[in-house]
Amino acid sequence: MRAILLASAALFASPAVAQDHSGHQMPDAQEEVPRQSDEAQNAMDHAAMGHDGPASQQIPSGPAPARAFEGPQHAADLIFDEQRMAQARAYNHAAHGGMATGTVLAERLETRFANGEEEYVWDLSAWYGTATDKIVFKSEGEGAFGGELEEAEVQLLWGHAIGPWFDLQAGVRLDVEPDTTAHLALGAAGLAPYNIHIDGAAFLSDNGDLTARIEAEHDMRLTQSLILQPRAEFELAAQDIPTRGIGAGLYEASIGARLRYEIVPEFAPYIGVEYETATGRTADNIRAAGDDPDGVVVMIGLRAWF
Question: What 3-state class would DSSP assign to 239?
Answer without folding.
Answer: coil
